[in-house]
Write a structure and sequence with these properties.
By secondary structure, the protein is of the alpha+beta class. The chain is built from twelve helices and 20 strands. The strands form five sheets. Strands 1, 9, 10, 11, 12, 13 and 14 form a seven-stranded antiparallel β-sheet that branches. The protein is globular. One of its GO terms (molecular function) is metal ion binding.
Amino acid sequence: MNIKQKSFQKNTNSRQFIIVAFTPEQAKLAALEIQKLKPQTTGISFRDFQIKAQIHAGGRDKGFFKEHPQQSGVQVVFSPEEAEELASKMIGSTLITSQTGFRGRYTSAVLVSERLFLRKELFMSISLNAEKGGINIICNDKGFISTDERQNKTTKQHFVTLQDGINKEKMQQIIESFNLDKTYNEQLKNIVGQLFQCFLQNDATYLEVKPLGLTIDGQLIICDQKIQIDDNSAFRQIELASIEDIRQKDEKEIIAQKNFLNYIALDGNIGSMVNGAGLAMTTMDLIAQRNGSPANFLDCGGTADSQQIIAALKILANDKNIESIFINIHAGITSCDIIAMAIIKALSEVGIKKPIVLRLKGKNFEQAKQIIYDCGFNILVTEDLIEATDKVIKTAQILRMAREAKININLLS
């Protein structure tokens, strides 16, 4: 569950003036409201504004809108009128970034804030450490961190247990990670402490501040941040769950969530339905390694019932990007023949017109194979994972080449 910047702001003592606007008119009014306030940076007599598209993905400043390719997701404007004009291009449009894929994310709101002038940018994140059963706090005095930079000299990692929290010694270590003069220690102590409490109180799995800015007059201000809330805590975090913008989610993701399926949309053309997250990841990796392109991650779990299988197949059937479907099931708790009958029931209801490769492995495979053959559906069945992967990739390639050549072919009986 991802939460907008404004909701996060209330749990910290950041002084940046920010207002979320859902219409261009609201963006103009927000800029006018901010304009009335005294500039936060001493010595600055003018007021510029920063407009940020509110989507659940990073890379907004380097992204572009599908409807307005020249516009990025983060821009500076110099008047309330410009704020209104820019917001009219952002709100209701689809922002594409390095994290969204080509499908992009719908922009339902923008965040209007005062433009700040910074001497230095810092980075801080708080995340769960499942392996050690605690919390990681990562600090960087450069204001930005990528996966490759986590081990560099300027990045410091601190482990905190839930029992001990951030004690005096640990707090001092975290503060020193930012390499600032001691005059900023009290500000850092307050910010780090409140961010840590925000993380705990909201059942967060990840919290990031990028950047924590040092202004030219010596104020530390949280300039941009994001927080991810554990979906399992929705019953406890009722207020946060109520403000989640489900329009940020793919329609297929909403269907999957309602049916307790783990689903993530990707940009490929080979759909997959797998029982078990580990096997699903392996299936995606194998498709990619053998020159295929996975269209999704879809884990229906080890004990999926026929209703869940129907929902999963509907998701794949309605995805226009998918050209062939790979069902990869390892029968453990439930035998292959029972799974085969559930799949046939689902196919009868859904009416899929896309070619399917079914890989079954486990108890009663031969009986399941016969059930599939007798059902009348044109499904390629195999017990071999590599063979199944190659078949689904080749099927997708044939269909794609035919479509590009504008040739109509039917791989179904």
